[in-house]
Amino acid sequence: MSGEISPTGKRSGPGSSPELRASHADRDRVVDVLRIAAGDGLLTADELDERLETALSARTLSELTPLTADLPPVSATVGVTGAEVKDIVRIEQVHSGAVERVGRWVVPRRLELAVTFCEVTLDFTDAVITHNTLRIDVAMTGKTLTLVTRPGIVVDTDGLQLAHSRVKYRQTPTNPDTPVTLRVELVGQKAHGRVVVRPPRRTFGQWLLRRPASLSVDA
Fold this sequence. Notes:
The chain is an alpha/beta fold and 219 residues long. It contains six helices and twelve strands. It folds into two domains: 24-80, no CATH class; 85-201, no CATH class. It has helices at 24-39, 45-57, 61-68, 74-81, 204-208, 213-216; strands spanning 88-94, 99-101, 106-107, 110-116, 120-123, 128-129, 133-141, 144-148, 153-163, 166-169, 182-191, 194-198. The longest helix has 16 residues, at 24-39. It is elongated and about 60 Å long. Residues 1-24 are annotated as: Disordered. It comes from Streptomyces albiflavescens. This is DUF1707 domain-containing protein.
């Protein structure tokens, strides 16, 4: 009987050690699979948090293998989005149409925005998150940079220099136990226009079902 396939892609045979030590690269590969699976809705926030904690503290390959045994390979999952996971994505536009990343797009490790007088919208509602941090290098003049978040996503604007611009940050109340799945760091300069960080807009049905604030607060 052939052995199990380890996170490194190697098959363990009768003579191999079941307690082979896991490297940083081994743990990172498992973390990537878990984050992509969570972005596809295959894992709940609690399951993701629990498995990430186990993966990051794993010392052997045998500890990592069960964490992804019930999940599809990374290549198959990414194929659904029609894109590949990239470390750096650069967007350059001047006086042209709006720049939008919406729907099921794959979040890179780093995004460079060199944009002049173009609206930019980064919607993370259905985005596939493969890393825990996204650094956005901003070199943007005019118009509005909009980031649409979801529970578990936090945006840090402390590293952003504003020139004749302002930041509007609005978040919906979330469970304090919700794990942070992505930290977005904005650095660089935004001149003129605005930076807006907000949750998804309510649908018409949600507006019809909305309750008075006094009734929505838990006792």
